[in-house]
Amino acid sequence: MTLKLAEHYGLCFGVRDAIAEAERLAQHGPLTILGELVHNPVVRDRLTRAGVREGALDRTADTTQVMITAHGASDAMRAAWRQSGRGVADGTCPLVRHAHDQLRQFVQIGYFPVVIGQPGHVEVKGLVGDFPGALVVHEEADIATLPAELKIGIISQTTQPIDRVLALLTAIRAARPQSDVRFVDTVCQPTKNRQLALRTLIAECDTMVVVGGHNSNNTLQLVAAAEVAGLTVFHIERADELRPDWFAGANVVGLTAGTSTLKETVAEVHARLGEIARRFQHAVPSTCEPKGAQ
Ligand code: SF4
User: Fold this and answer.
1) Of the residues 93, 123, 147, the one at which a domain ends
2) Which of 135, 197, 248, 280 pairs with 99 at a CA distance of 20 to 30 A?
3) What is the pTM of this model?
4) How many folded domains does the chain comprise?
């Protein structure tokens, strides 16, 4: 059994900076995060131990300091929290903020706003929150509900697979040949890097281990891509979930992780897979040591 690590995997800069900011703020007093700072139980446990509470964007909080997550929020929601008298720290990732800015610019120049993404996801709710008429397109069937607008401005949720986004864009253009359809690609570069690295890994492996929260959108996208390619896929959150018998028939095992997974967690999974490989009396190449987040 050979082990191969993706060229790009794990924690992105947006999540890393939001975690650091939450831990810094928690040292100065009680803090409520308005939602899951990251969709990762290992990180959430660490924040809980640091005294950070978890609330929700649309509920009240019993601390005077609150924090918006890297997924962002609508301007209306941000203003409501400020008006409630609380200190509002904004952990919105700059690349999510860029998506908000692009959508607002479309509306300002008279384009009907469309977001390609997952309905109900916290980032998407934030994106469309200031534009009640905006349409979220997740499947081709959603395009049928697109109003007969002559000018349509489209952005994407930052963690959507770019291939999927471009396919839906093509479908929208085909369905509205008379419309001026403009698109700004707001899938973030860390997500693209991980998707591309996974594609390379898929070509070399028969089995894939994906590390990340079970409710992490970008982790689920990595899992889905490996499954569609026909690999045997194991989605775990922690190293202690790995079972040696899963790998009895595996030859080449790939390892990747979603953008909210700590590099320590990936290193633990990598070490555990190495133990399992040795148990099967095969070598793990030394070139597969985990690197830092990229
Ligand atoms: S996945 Fe992309 S948009 Fe989301 S926090 Fe990370 S870098 Fe920012």
Assistant:
1) 93
2) 197
3) 0.88
4) 3
